[in-house]
Amino acid sequence: MSADAVVVGSGPNGLVAAVTLASAGRKVLLLEAAAEFGGALRSAELTLPGRVHDMGATVMAMALASPATRGLALDGVEFAHPPVVAAHPLDDGPAVLVHRDAGRTAEGLGRDAGVWRAVVGAAERAGFPLVDLLLKPLGPWELRPAAFAAAARFGVAAALPATTLARRAFRTRRGRALLAGMAAHSMLDLRAPLTAGYGLTLAVLAHLVGWPLVAGGSQRLADALVARLRELGGEAVAGHRVRGLRELDAPTVVLDVPPREFAALADQPGRHGELPRRYRERLLRFRHGPGVFKVDWALDGPVPWRDPGVAGAGTVHLGGTLEEIALSEAETAAGRHSPRPYVLLVQPYAADPGGRGGHTLWAYCHVPNGSRADLTGAIEAQIERYAPGFRDRVLARHVMGPAALEAANPNLAGGDIGGGLASLGQFLRRPVWSPAPWRTPLPGVFLCSASTPPGPGVHGMGGWQAARLALKG
Ligand SMILES: Cc1cc2nc3c(=O)[nH]c(=O)nc-3n(C[C@H](O)[C@H](O)[C@H](O)COP(=O)(O)OP(=O)(O)OC[C@H]3O[C@@H](n4cnc5c(N)ncnc54)[C@H](O)[C@@H]3O)c2cc1C
Known about the structure:
Blueprint (H helix, E strand, L loop, with lengths): L4 E4 L3 H12 L4 E4 L11 E2 L8 E2 L6 H5 L13 E2 L3 E7 L2 E6 L3 H6 L5 H14 L1 H8 L12 H11 L3 H8 L3 H11 L11 H14 L4 E2 L4 H13 L3 E3 L14 E4 L3 H8 L10 H9 L5 E9 L13 E6 L3 H12 L9 E4 L12 E9 L8 H11 L7 E7 L1 H7 L15 H5 L16 E3 L13 H12 L1
Parallel strand pairs: 1-2, 1-10, 2-9, 6-12, 10-16
Antiparallel strand pairs: 3-4, 5-8, 6-7, 11-14, 11-15, 12-13, 13-14
Helix pairs in contact: 1-10, 1-17, 4-6, 4-9, 6-9, 7-8, 7-9, 8-9, 8-13, 11-12
The structure holds flavin-adenine dinucleotide (FAD).
């Protein structure tokens, strides 16, 4: 087919870009290097026959909240909510639980109930306009005047390092630990600015839309987007790795690739011309963040949590206190492996019993970019700490360190699942400082991956912004 637009890469951003362009009547060709579509949305039988594991993203809070995807009704996609959004077990007392309801969550925080209500609860009440502000940091926004106070309070808290907010605003070990577990999703040293913001944003989403997963596996969301593209007359081809822009003979090209790969593709320029030297240098200066070491398990039953309250949680943060989690993330940021790493664990069966062919589980910890270390033992020790007897439930395991992750998906460079370091500098320059960073100096060529604003997550915003710019011409 002779296409009006070629989209390279079928992660959530590439898929949303392709569907947005096709919805506007463009003839779209989507090219994917891997044998399956979806990028970090893929699911596969990683352990035992019939057991479905998400290779990447499971928690779909951003998909539900994003202006790019929240209105999409897709055949075969059902969002399943766990009874408890997230749990943070502690050594010396009951786990901290995050519920859909902000008030109920606050009740479990004792003397920190007030700060939770004032910052997180109020931001939740500001609703989707506030989420739009966060996911469209470059605007346009439609925040009602009534929400300004909540947004301002949220903004001041969000700009802080998580350690600062935790120590200044939270008074209990439970509240501080909860904030640290949320903020550590950022994969940054928790003494860095904005880390509080990453954690608070996830907390607001927990109350506003929940942290559901896709029943049957995230692959269904990718497959449904590919089906929508085909319904709209688009073509999607898997197993085709694009090696240079020269291959792509279409007026519009949208790249769901990281900055360095864009620079490499542009080394074989085509009809769109050559990259200016300074822009190319900026692409090459773009920094990837730490990697992850991920383990998937097939279990013969649920994880035997010491605190039964954790059983209903879709997501579990393991790592104990603020101090311990902050130390673990500081070690990773300094290029070292933490012996007691912060572990992010997802138990899909809590939301989707029977949907994955049995009890499946995944967890990862952060490691220096490109690390070759095997963290299986350290991760399992953290689970055993809160769930004695866990190892006895394991029927099979599958591990993916940074090299395996990158081999499965070149966007996960060195195991970086965030599309680039989420530091303040790269929040502002993603990958360059511009009011429209999705537009590149090459006419008709757009960048849409998680290396563009608003960054990582299954929200499709990079693809949506790139497609909107492409449609404007
Ligand atoms: C282990 C893990 C867990 C995660 N958990 C969550 C979660 O629970 N919730 C959440 O919101 N987010 C999560 N994320 C992050 C989220 O999945 C990513 O931010 C998101 O998928 C990024 O989307 P993308 O479209 O930019 O790129 P990707 O999803 O990485 O897709 C990029 C695609 O482009 C293809 N590609 C690259 N180069 C070429 C080329 N030259 N030719 C053809 N194809 C090419 C790749 O093969 C890949 O399929 C997780 C990620 C990982 C890896």
